Automatic annotation (TrEMBL):
Superkingdom to which the source organism belongs: Eukaryota
Any GO molecular function: polyubiquitin modification-dependent protein binding
Organism: Corvus brachyrhynchos
Name the record gives this protein: Ubiquitin-like 7
Pfam (any one): ubiquitin
């Protein structure tokens, strides 16, 4: 398409063609220019976008599937929390490794993606991102048994 007459929809297809690994579908991104979300049916000219303009690409978040939480085996949970609590408080190397992992954005993102419902639980996210809270919540005496 001619540069200025290029539709936003076509531009999104070009972008996703270059970002196939991380964004395989144009429907998974929004384009933002000067603080405005660009509509697919408009053109670059419509928004005044010229060569050298900066257009931001935002990846849309995936909706989490509706899932019923699995029942929790409280005995097993208490056992696991006791192991975690003991390891955190008796092994500085283990504690440092856990906190280093939780302090790494990529690692934390992987944990969030791998745990259904975690991304929509602000309390759990806060606990994972705060060393002191994590240590307190890893204490098995905090569980209702």
């Amino acid at each position: 398409c001619p540069w200025g007459g290029c539709s936003i929809s076509h531009l999104k297809q070009l972008i996703t063609g270059h970002l196939q690994e991380s964004v395989p579908d144009p429907e998974l991104i929004d384009l933002i220019y000067c603080g405005r979300k660009l509509r697919d049916d408009q053109t670059l000219d419509f928004y005044g976008i010229q060569s050298g303009s900066t257009v931001h690409v935002l990846r849309k978040s995936w909706p989490e599937p509706d899932q019923k939480p699995e029942p929790v085996d409280k005995v097993a949970a208490v056992r696991e929390f006791r192991v975690l609590h003991t390891a955190l408080h008796s092994s500085p190397a283990y504690r440092d490794a856990v906190f280093k992992m939780l302090g790494n954005k990529e690692s934390l993102d992987q944990i969030i993606v791998a745990t259904p419902g975690l991304s929509s639980d602000p309390v759990a996210l806060g606990v994972l991102q705060d060393k002191d809270l994590f240590s307190v919540f890893a204490d098995p005496s905090m569980l209702d048994t």
